[in-house]
Amino acid sequence: MVDGTIDSDALSKRRKFIKGLIGFFGIATVAGVTYPFVRYLQPIKQQEGEGRVEIAEADLPPGKAVLINYKGNPAVVINTGGGYIALTAVCPHLGCIVKWQEEEGILFCPCHAGKFDTDGNVLAGPPPRPLEKFPVRVAGGKVILGGV
Amino acid sequence: MVDGTIDSDALSKRRKFIKGLIGFFGIATVAGVTYPFVRYLQPIKQQEGEGRVEIAEADLPPGKAVLINYKGNPAVVINTGGGYIALTAVCPHLGCIVKWQEEEGILFCPCHAGKFDTDGNVLAGPPPRPLEKFPVRVAGGKVILGGV
Amino acid sequence: MFASKKDSALLDWLEERFTIKEELEKNTTKKMVPPHINWLYCLGGLSLTIFIIQVVTGVFLMMYYKPTPELAYGSIEFIVKEVPYGWLIQRVHSIGANTMIILVMAHMVRVLFYNAYQKPRELHWISGIFLFGLTLITSFTGYLLPWTQLSYWGATVGTNMPGSAPIIGEWMVRMSRGSEQVSGVTLTRFFALHVVVLPAMISAFAGWHFVMIRRTGVAGPF
Amino acid sequence: MFASKKDSALLDWLEERFTIKEELEKNTTKKMVPPHINWLYCLGGLSLTIFIIQVVTGVFLMMYYKPTPELAYGSIEFIVKEVPYGWLIQRVHSIGANTMIILVMAHMVRVLFYNAYQKPRELHWISGIFLFGLTLITSFTGYLLPWTQLSYWGATVGTNMPGSAPIIGEWMVRMSRGSEQVSGVTLTRFFALHVVVLPAMISAFAGWHFVMIRRTGVAGPF
């Protein structure tokens, strides 16, 4: 079978090609099956958490605070009496949500007793850095965060 | 060891006794562990389902019906215009809950289209026997089932 | 397999500790598949494949499903409409259930017609009967979970069936419902059976089924 | 065992079909327990025993538990106060979780001090590490389920931890929560992990662990 002889170089090339093909389709299949499952588990973006948040001034008398969802994360807006301040409500220590304590005029984290003043500075406890501040403006009887 | 010899009859008796003892405690243990789990799964008796049921006559105008819980099972009380009738609401075919159809003046089972008249007799469908009737009396503006 | 150097190093490492080479050869590389095997012998393996798909998709559905009468239907609607690819996973799980029943039944018909249930494979058949029953009960309990009209009455009719049994019939109906009528208690109960108890039992019986078939070999030729 | 006539008839029946006598003798009746075994060698078996108790009590708790923020705490209160023996099952499950962690750790300390993790038992130790991790994660996910203040903040702190990892940290936090903050989605997600995924993984790793210890025998004498 002189005609039928396949030189071993060509054979090895062909084998490599087939192996590559199998590998490619294998990986493509695994990726194609995995992708929907990963997407399925990802947090669903909430529309109300995006962009601009408005609070009626009447809902926020001096000394009070409200918890809002600002750009997907909790934020706290405080009426200090002297003006409105918006801070992230996520404690920089371990991610718990801080709460406004009207009597003491501080923000308190329930997890490890972190305390913050109305500018977000750490007064006590383990938080490694201050709370992030967001710009606030007042227009038409409304306290507004974000948007333009 | 003439002294130490135990006659085989006594040995066999002792063996039997010990086997019996192990068996007894084995069964007692299994029963003691199983009992709480079986009790756990049993339906919890609902107080409101027991004994006497009262319905204000004003709540049951002619042509209307109400579904009540009578002695732990659903029952239907109908004001036919000519008087009050109480029937079990559990279809004797496969246990679905029958519904009062005001327009047709019948009770209808949604599972296999069984139909009953206001006396509980089967008009159509697969139910093998009529709906059970409960005695009703009227006193002080109230329709009363059960109790004395 | 092309035995590369890396492969044999790992194998040697394992062999030194567990002496698995012989076992491995007997069950994989030197395992002989009898020549009378045809595609009808795939039906059991396909049933297993579907079961695995059902377990995986089921776990993902559980991530958003809420087993209470008020929230069950809404949570499935949320999965189908809001969660990315939720419609796909829900659809696969629902079609998979019916497919699995069909495949298990086809497998049983094959075994029956080939007389493969006969000695020495009586226990294969008996464990298979249990697997069939468990498959049906798993489908039945899963059918209630969306808490639609259909599933509610389906559960009512289904749980009413043991009531025909003498003496303990009534008791069995009440135990399976957890209440006099199908209710929220029935829903959580069916949910627990559907997602833990029944899949665990199917896995156990299937494991037993597979070990036996390895022990006796597949039936035939006929 | 006192081999009765009935026993041997069944055994013969099985032997004829599966030739299990040799296997059975090797692993049960003729299995030799080495003389250096002491009570510290029980710790692994006790961990398994507690795991089985946790699975059984867990399934029963599932029969009434509702994994939604509004109903979770109330449903556990219902189990404890209304369901017969619910207080017992809940208490056993809760104490069992802590006991299991202690037993697994004690088992690891024993293995460590006896140098039992050394060749040829490296894989035993590695699978054991996985089992320890899975036990911790199972306890952690279970801790959220009552949806109390403590469990809510516990989950917040716990899911915040992977956030310290570079690059994928933030992504891991969000995937484990299913939302930006711990929410109802986190609850159903933790529930699915706690009742299906993690117990199944523990079972698989434990099975692997036990097969290996049978293969190599217990370590010692030292």
Give the helix proportion of chain C (percent range).
Answer: over 70%
As a whole number of angstroms, the C-alpha radius of gyration of chain C is 22 Å
Number of domains of chain A: 2
N- and C-termini, Cα separation of chain C = 32 Å
Structural class of chain A, by secondary structure, is: alpha+beta
| Largest interface summary | C-D, 33 and 33 residues
**Strand order across the biggest sheet of chain A?**
2-3-4-9
* CATH homologous superfamily classification of chain C: Cytochrome Bc1 Complex, Chain C
The share of residues in extended strands of chain A comes to 25-35%
CATH architecture of the largest domain in chain A: 3-layer Sandwich
As residue ranges, the low-confidence spans of chain C are none
Q: Number of DSSP strands of chain A? A: 11
Can you describe what's shown?
The complex is a heterotetramer, with two copies of chain A (148 residues) and two copies of chain C (222 residues). Chain A is built from one helix and eleven strands; from the N terminus they run H-E-E-E-E-E-E-E-E-E-E-E. Chain A has one helix at 8-41, and strands at 53-56, 65-70, 73-79, 84-88, 99-101, 106-109, 114-116, 122-124, 133-134, 136-139, 142-145. Chain A has two domains: 1-42; 49-145, Rieske [2Fe-2S] iron-sulphur domain (Rieske Iron-sulfur Protein). Chain A is elongated, with a radius of gyration of 29 Å. With 148 residues, chain A is an alpha+beta fold. In chain A, the strands form three sheets. Chain A has a four-stranded antiparallel beta sheet with strand order 2-3-4-9, with no helix packed on it. A four-stranded antiparallel beta sheet of chain A has the order 5-6-7-8, with no helix packed on it. Helices cover 23% and strands 30% of the residues of chain A. The N and C termini of chain A lie far apart (82 Å). The model of chain C has no long low-confidence stretch (mean pLDDT 92). In chain C, helix 6 (122-144) packs across helix 7 (149-160). Chain C is built from nine helices and no strands. Chain C has a single domain (38-216), classed as Cytochrome Bc1 Complex, Chain C (Up-down Bundle). Chain C is an all-alpha fold and 222 residues long. Chains in contact: A-C, A-D, B-C, B-D, C-D.
